[in-house]
Design a protein that fits this description.
The chain is α+β, with helices and mostly antiparallel strands. It has a domain at 71-237: ph1033 like domains (ph1033 like fold, Roll). The protein has helices at residues 29-38, 48-62, 94-98, 113-121, 192-205, 213-216, 227-235; strands at 6-7, 24-25, 71-78, 84-85, 88-89, 104-107, 127-132, 139-152, 176-191, 222-226. It holds the Pfam family EVE.
Length: 242
């Protein structure tokens, strides 16, 4: 299966790569904050045209009815560039996932309670964006799906793992992980700066990204998405970059 834990939450430990752990998922408290700062100035070009076109299409499909706010998709952050955490490289890009047996790995190393709860809420078959974080240009690079629901994260008991938690007990594990499988690359890289431009426009005019957690809780490495948020962001892969 996967290896070093790469995905993480700030509250969780950082990302790394281990001998037999797998993806480092990170909730870089400071990392994501840095990414947020990198994109404080959205690119020129308003998102309103895209929002209006998307809204028009969605209304024709649903009769204009607004669905209840339900989280059914996810955004998972992982670091594509090498970074040592307690001597372990937490790098884990989408290419690393594609290189895994059956293109599947476990999403370990999360040590933030809210992110952990999101992990535990994931359902088999749900899709998530694979987001490259804490790098020169953060953004969405692909789509993965949940192939195994939450179960104890073994790295919490491994004293050699950077995410070891001496306070966790096997009879009552604190931390969980899920297994994810590569689905496909997005048709193009969707940068954080572009998503933020839409978020700011939607925040002003009531668009689908107005409450997107990527900007309201930017430090979380695991974030839920509503169907509307997922659909809108996915529609961006069809547009030419600004």
């Amino acid at each position: 299966m996967p290896w070093p834990s790469r995905k993480r939450d700030k509250g969780a430990v950082s990302d790394k790569k281990e001998p037999d752990a797998k993806i480092a998922k990170t909730e870089e408290e400071a990392s994501d904050k840095e990414e947020e700062e990198k994109s404080t100035k959205p690119p020129a070009g308003s998102s309103k045209s895209g929002w209006k076109n998307w809204k028009k299409t969605k209304e024709s499909d649903s009769g204009g009815e607004e669905s209840k706010i339900t989280y059914c998709h996810w955004l998972l952050k992982s670091e594509p560039e090498s970074r040592l955490e307690k001597g372990v490289d937490v790098k884990f890009s989408i290419d690393d996932l594609k290189a895994e047996p059956n293109q599947t790995t476990f999403w370990d190393g999360v040590r933030n309670y809210q992110a952990r709860n999101f992990l535990r809420a994931m359902k088999l078959g749900q899709q998530a964006f694979f987001y490259h974080s804490n790098c020169k240009e953060p953004g969405i690079v692909g789509i993965v799906k949940i192939v195994k629901e939450a179960y104890p994260d073994h790295t919490q008991f491994d004293q050699k793992d950077p995410h070891y938690d001496s306070s966790s007990r096997k009879e009552n594990p604190k931390w969980s992980m899920v297994d994810v499988q590569f689905v496909r690359m997005t048709k193009r890289f969707i940068p954080l700066s572009e998503i933020k431009a839409h978020y700011l426009a939607h925040k002003a005019d009531g668009g689908p990204l107005k409450n997107m957690m990527l900007f309201t809780r930017q430090r979380l490495s695991i974030q839920p998405l509503t169907q509307e948020e997922f659909d809108f962001v996915l529609s961006l892969e069809e547009e030419k970059p600004h």
